[in-house]
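Worked Example 4.2. Read the sequence first, then its structure tokens.
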Amino acid sequence: MTKNLFKEFPEIKTNEIMLRKLNFNDIQDMFEIFSDEEVLKYYDVLPHKNIEDTERLFFTFTNNYKDNKAIRWGIVNLENNKLIGTCGFHNFDYKSTRAEIGCELNKAYWKQGFMHKALNEIIKIGFENSPLNRIEAIVDDENENSKLILEKLAFKHEGCLRKRFYFNGQFRNENYFGLLKDEWK
């Protein structure tokens, strides 16, 4: 696999959502997501305290794409044209043709199928329009909603690493999930 997973940033549109490149006009919607303690409960970062924290994250997402380290889509609700989350691939292993998937969603849009649809679309583009052979996900042991979404997307639970990382004053367990190209649809 080359060091450039996607030659151009792919835009994806369904009946309900658009997955597109983030732009600086998204900062306020991103802040709404990344400043929410509930949204970041199982994330390994603390909630943003100010808009500058979110601007730094925006530039991290943008620069990681330019440097071929990651790709992060904005999830836009087509009903109101609001950025409601982000999702994408990171931790590329170009030699082994694998990447890790990650996401977050504004809690006002939880349990409405938006994240399932978004992840399904990026998995599709990852397997059909790139040389990826394996997509991985790492989920906090207590994050039942993320585990459920991954299982609905045909990811296999491959194990739990106990007290694998330290965050916010405690050791946390990590669950590992994997999806192979030949297992997908």
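Now turn to a second chain, presented in exactly the same format:
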Amino acid sequence: MQRVCFLLKVREDRLAEYRERHAAVWPEMLDALTAAGWRNYSLFLRPDGLLVGYLETEDFAAAQAAMAATDVNARWQAEMAPFFEALDGAKPDAAMQPLAEVFHLA
């Protein structure tokens, strides 16, 4: 099982709406994440907009590819892109660069 952690930056003026959107994630998006192998997926948001994501999956590249192949993900990413800083035209899911794990207490 791979443990994946990534960082993104939510625009400070969109924090409240970002929280609202994630309090009501579309059921079909949740189903797609589960079917694509995303497990124990969490997002943590700091008051300045730093977003920390964590998930577990058998194969992160395969899990990303499975999501990229879904229509619901394309729609979700298009709606979420304006919430983020410094995407340089990328979709939020494409901008997720995993952090290197340096310690894990098993």
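Notes for the reader: The chain has a mean pLDDT of 93. The first strand starts at residue 2 and ends at 9.
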